[in-house]
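Lab meeting, item 3. Inverse folding demo.
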């Protein structure tokens, strides 16, 4: 598994048919994962898993907390996948809330978090690709990550963020280098209009499927928001057998 040019050690093929792993254990469904050089990431665990499970990465927005995002998206994706939520950079004077550093900082933090995940959970972590979700301001980071590693981040959701961060050149790169699906989930007309243009760029090569949704919800991940988002995330992972199996 490679992310932004960095090979993660020990990413071996999935176990041979008939071989099962010991059930993944933990003190609870959510845990903190120490990340070298950064604040601990929050991880929602597929407790009891006896086979490799895919990774969903959620990048939060400004003035947020990783555990809030992990809690919401664990409910959306279910309890049988890894959900990795980098913490980001603490915002001064914001009562313990976190924001995002530079793109280089965010990508370095994610590399370190994925390496730490593999080191701790070993063969329970399925090989790439991973699903990438950018929420709010995190959508800009997600778009740039997808441009740099389209085959790793083959399925991307920009949720309540600014689609204009996805340029025409980035769309072409994503299309020809392994990208699969992009979801634009909008809560206002400006986002919807911008997403429509990006969807046209992404669809040109024929290798990427896009979906643009505008919902009268937000801006917070409350019950109405998640109810509207859930079927769209099901579309995002449709066709990836690892997610179908993990829900059984």
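The presenter then showed the designed sequence:
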């Amino acid at each position: 598994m490679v992310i932004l040019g960095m090979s993660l050690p020990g990413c071996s093929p999935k176990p041979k048919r008939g071989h099962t792993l010991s059930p993944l254990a933990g003190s609870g469904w959510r845990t903190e994962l120490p990340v070298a050089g950064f604040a601990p990431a929050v991880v929602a665990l597929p407790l009891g898993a006896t086979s490799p499970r895919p990774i969903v990465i959620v990048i939060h927005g400004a003035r947020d907390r990783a555990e809030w995002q992990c809690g919401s998206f664990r409910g959306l994706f279910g309890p049988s996948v890894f959900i990795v939520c980098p913490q980001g950079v603490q915002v001064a004077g914001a009562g313990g809330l976190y924001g995002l550093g530079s793109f280089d900082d965010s990508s370095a933090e994610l590399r370190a978090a994925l390496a730490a995940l593999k080191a701790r959970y070993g063969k329970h972590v399925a090989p790439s690709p991973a699903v990438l979700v950018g929420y709010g301001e995190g959508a800009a980071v997600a778009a740039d990550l997808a441009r740099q590693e389209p085959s790793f981040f083959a399925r991307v959701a920009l949720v309540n963020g600014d689609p204009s961060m996805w340029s025409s050149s980035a769309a072409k790169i994503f299309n020809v280098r392994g990208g699969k699906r992009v979801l634009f989930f909008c809560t206002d007309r400006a986002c919807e209009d911008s997403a429509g243009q990006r969807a046209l760029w992404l669809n040109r090569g024929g290798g990427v499927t896009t979906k643009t949704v505008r919902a009268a919800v937000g801006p917070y991940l409350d019950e109405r928001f998640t109810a509207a988002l859930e079927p769209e995330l099901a579309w995002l992972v449709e066709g990836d057998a690892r997610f179908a199996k993990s829900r059984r």
